[in-house]
Amino acid sequence: MKKPFPIMPTLIALMSALYFLVPLYATFLFSLKMTRGEYSFASYRSVLNSSIFIDTITFSTIASLCAIVIGTVIIVPTAYWVRLKLPHIRPVIEFISLLPLVVPPVVLVFGYIRVFGSNSWLPLAGSDQGTNLLLVFGYVVMSMPYMFRAVDNGMSVIDIKTLTEAAESLGASRIRTIAFVIFPNVRGAIMSGAFLTFSISLGEFVLASLLNRPAFGPYLVQLGQDRAYEPAALAIMAFAFTWACMALMQLFAVKKPGSRWFPRLSIKLYKKVEA
Amino acid sequence: MSFVNISNVVKSFGTNTVVKGFDLAVEKGEFVSFLGPSGCGKTTVLRMIVGFETPSSGSITIGGKDVTNVAPNKRNIGMVFQAYALFPNMSVFDNIAFGLKISGMTKQAVSARVEEMLKLIGLTHLANRFPYEMSGGQQQRVALARALAPKPDVLLLDEPLSALDAKIRVSLREEIRDIQKKLGITTVFVTHDQEEALTISDRIVVMNGGRADQIGTPNQIYNKPATRFVAGFVGTLNIIDAKVHNRDDGTVLIGSKKIQLNDPIEHVKPDGMVSLALRPEAFSIVPDAAKDVSLDGTVTSINFLGSVIRAVMDVEGREISFDMFNNPSLMLPDVGDKTSVYFASSDILALPA
Ligand SMILES: Nc1ncnc2c1ncn2[C@@H]1O[C@H](COP(=O)(O)OP(=O)(O)OP(=O)(O)O)[C@@H](O)[C@H]1O
Ligand SMILES: [Mg+2]
């Protein structure tokens, strides 16, 4: 027996799609109208040609990548250790990881400035390099809920404890176990966390602006105040970028070991160890 | 001194003592099984041998060396888990090579050893497969090869066959035993399946509540159970309460039937009763010169087990199970029939308490 065509659900889905697509389409159309009387990509060209755009997006990309690396190095071993040895404190860790969703970035940044201000015991905010570091740490904190959740979910899928014991009985040290057994198996999860971190910190405004860093977020806002067409172009580009990230995430998440289009990390690292 | 010595090992988790003074000596090249009900501490003892748990007291030596507090990755023990625990990100080849690479072998030596192991388990053609592309039986064979590849001093297997279906369970246990004999590796095998333990072990440790109730060959465990628990756990057993008639000449009464026992009566309960044990296969439904005792009763149930039929009959209020060969030429009794069963008094085991 065939089910009748689901009219209502389809209608609702269409309406919601329109709700998102219409403004997007309007923005896109608007971004093409920079040159009077014709559609052109002039606004996009203008954005891409601006050196501030290149500088700020480079700065933000590097800051985001640093945040991803630091976040991974902190969160993967933590999540691993908690699952392996301290399963009873997992709710506590989970709660801590959610705190950044409750504490607004403004509070975070003023806390930073107070603790690491120029007359504190560790005057990080006194120098540019130090402030950059604070910004990266801020991004690590802000993306922690997503990173932790992604990694922790990834670990729940594989039997961390038994895999660790299997590796240990074969003579592996803890570090080797993490690097060659645990890490490759949660790689998909780490990637998801990484992309989320990336999309959060790339356009981040509050932290970058209050720490006075030349980041992409403040530039975006500034541009919105000064120009008409370029912000629309930027919005479309940011949107495309986000979707590209999501697609990549999806790709990494479903990737099975053995399909070789992605270089296998484990092999390369082994070679290094042997050398 | 034996190769593996476990001396008076105790393990408590908090206030819960799960292993209570466990002693075992395993000879080099021996295949020992731990058999016992769920929760009796089999896994816990195994985990202390490999080092995942530390004994609360007592000591463990391997090859004369005290390893009680040595880290698991320094013990050179191979371990096979119930859930295979193959590394999902590595091919069969890389799984087996894992322990070898750690030991610092050259690439060629690793390759050669992996090939050798693949041949041993007969999976040479699957070297490039990933764990998720293989059946449970294949995965467990790879896990065995992975554990054996670095030439461990001892091989431990914790219910390695429990997740597999019946046919593969039988063929794989034979394969494990063959490989074990071929390599002469000292092996401890955990199972809760008595048939498995009886078939493949040199010796069996029957565990009960954190202790070893009996350690012996399959033959000893089956035919001379040391405790009532062992008798009841290994194989099916009729436990028949009989009244001592005359302790001096060794006669007892089962209901109104007087029976002469072979062995002197040792364990008489305060109420003048003894517990006798008889395997269902000790009975016959046809008279036989060697079977000098008979019991009469009414058949209450018939269970078809394949080549054997197990029946239960009521003898003056006692349930007695007996086996009959499924032989179509015999007149087998039906439920409700009155019948007699015959057995030899030498088959009776008088149980300690
Ligand atoms: N890490 C632990 N913390 C607390 N109790 C534990 C721990 N490990 C085991 N136990 C307890 O110790 C007892 C023995 O467990 P063990 O796993 O050794 O049993 P087993 O004989 O292997 O049983 P099974 O046949 O079910 O595998 C159980 O009651 C179990 O609850
Ligand atoms: Mg167990």
Give the secondary structure arrangement, pairings included:
The complex is a heterodimer of chains A (275) and B (353).
Chain A: H1 7-31, H2 42-49, H3 51-85, H4 90-102, H5 105-116, H6 128-157, H7 160-169, H8 174-185, H9 187-202, H10 206-210, H11 216-226, H12 229-254, H13 265-274
Helix pairs in contact in A: 1-12, 2-12, 3-6, 3-9, 4-6, 6-9, 7-8, 9-12
Chain B: E1 4-13, E2 16-26, E3 31-35, H1 42-50, E4 57-62, E5 65-66, E6 77-80, H2 92-102, H3 107-120, H4 136-148, E7 154-158, H5 166-183, E8 186-191, H6 194-200, E9 203-208, E10 211-216, H7 218-223, H8 228-233, E11 238-246, E12 251-254, E13 257-260, E14 273-278, E15 293-304, E16 308-315, E17 318-325, E18 338-343, E19 349-351
Helix pairs in contact in B: 2-3, 2-4, 3-4
The complex binds adenosine-5'-triphosphate and magnesium ion (MG).
Keywords (chain A): Cell inner membrane, Cell membrane, Membrane, Transmembrane, Transmembrane helix, Transport
Family (chain A): Belongs to the binding-protein-dependent transport system permease family.
Organism (chain A): Ahrensia kielensis
